[in-house]
From TrEMBL:
Pfam families given in the database record: AAA_3 (PF07726), AAA_lid_2 (PF17863)
Protein name: MoxR-like ATPase
PANTHER family: MAGNESIUM-CHELATASE SUBUNIT CHLD (PTHR42759:SF1), MOXR FAMILY PROTEIN (PTHR42759)
Domain ChlI/MoxR AAA lid: 260-328
InterPro entries listed in its UniProt record: ATPase_AAA-3, CbbQ/NirQ/NorQ/GpvN, ChlI/MoxR_AAA_lid, P-loop_NTPase
TM region(s), chain numbering: none
Ranges of residues in domain ATPase AAA-3: 57-190
Length: 337
């Protein structure tokens, strides 16, 4: 899945509990700080933060004007990460993301190439409207998301750690968009659906953002602390019951694995990366909710953001008006039993 691994030695159980309790208070402070600026949208904030805490990337899907960009910049501030933003357009070139080589000439007339880093060299990269760029440009981002380095003119350049891509995409079928290929979608740990705000939240937005001063967020942790929390999440124990539920959910979403609804409606299902994503995000969600161990509820709650971009329906299921979400909610019910 391309998530950075830690070189730290594993902690023993007592140390894990002590570290987890410190992480719980950090995460609670992060949630409170983000809540000062982003009204409502608890689920969106939670899922986006879970992706980052788990060390992965997230794809935010929603119509324009729902504060997706604002959420990403707020997260950058609160988590103490250096951020860059790239607005994807049809004429964007790979070098506009990765960087380019320029020729320098010294006083003696000797020429040499120097690499000028592109905006991808950031700890938190916002890829805005990622489906507007050509497949060639999309795939330039793909290598960095998977391998945490880029290659320009045969030279390898490592990206900073931590490195997270939060991409946004419009759900509307619009002119001049290139849908992301399956291989690229699979690189996103979670797909976060950004829906219209509830009435009370929308009232808060109206009152809170049209006055003279707007609320701003402050930093809660820094990049080094984020890496510590990510390392802790990878060391949290997961019970056999939860591991079995993950395997059962992921396998039941694949055609030909004995689930009648899946066999009838699903063209292709999630690969092993989906199980890895569930393992990591369930631990992160437990901490986020103030618990020290993941439960079956975590798996059921994460089924949709983890699976929906990793499977596709058959033509006949789409013709009947079925959605991937309908299929997943049926499968998730079986997790809770």
């Amino acid at each position: 899945m391309g998530v950075m691994t830690s070189t730290e030695t594993p902690l023993d159980e007592k140390a894990i509990i002590a570290s987890a309790e410190k992480a719980l208070s950090d995460i609670a402070a992060i949630r409170a700080e983000v809540g000062k600026v982003i009204f409502g949208q608890e689920q969106v904030v939670e899922n986006t933060l879970l992706a980052v805490l788990s060390g992965g990337h997230a794809l935010l899907v929603g119509v324009p004007g729902l504060a997706k960009t604002k959420l990403v910049t707020t997260l950058g501030t609160v988590l103490g990460l250096d951020g860059n933003r790239i607005q994807f357009t049809p004429d964007l070139m790979p070098s506009d993301i990765l960087g380019t080589e320029v020729m320098d000439q010294d006083d003696n007339g000797r020429r040499s190439f120097r690499f000028v880093k592109g905006p991808v060299f950031a700890q938190l990269l916002m890829a805005d409207e990622i489906n507007r760029a050509s497949p060639r440009t999309q795939s330039a981002l793909l290598q960095s998301m998977q391998e945490y380095h880029v290659t320009v003119a045969g030279q390898r350049y490592d990206l900073p750690g931590p490195f997270h891509v939060l991409a946004t995409q419009n759900p509307l079928e619009q002119e001049g968009t290139y849908p992301l290929p399956e291989a690229q979608l699979d690189r996103f740990l979670l797909q976060v659906d950004v829906l219209y705000p509830e009435l009370d939240a929308e009232r808060q937005i109206l009152l809170g953002t049209t006055g003279i001063s707007e609320a701003t967020a402050s930093g809660v942790i820094d990049a080094a602390r984020l890496l510590e929390i990510q390392s802790l999440i990878r060391q949290m124990p997961v019970s056999d019951k939860v591991v079995d539920a993950i395997l059962s959910l992921v396998r039941s979403a694949r055609p030909g694995h004995g689930n009648t609804m899946t066999d009838r409606h699903v063209a292709w299902g999630p690969g092993p990366r989906a199980g890895q994503a569930l393992m990591l995000c369930a631990r992160a969600r437990a901490l986020y909710e103030g618990r020290l161990a993941p439960s079956l509820d975590d798996i059921a709650a994460l089924a949709e953001p983890v699976l929906q971009h990793r499977m596709a329906l058959t033509f006949s299921a789409r013709a009947e008006g079925m959605t991937v979400r309908d299929v997943i909610s049926g499968l998730a019910k079986q997790v809770r039993g």
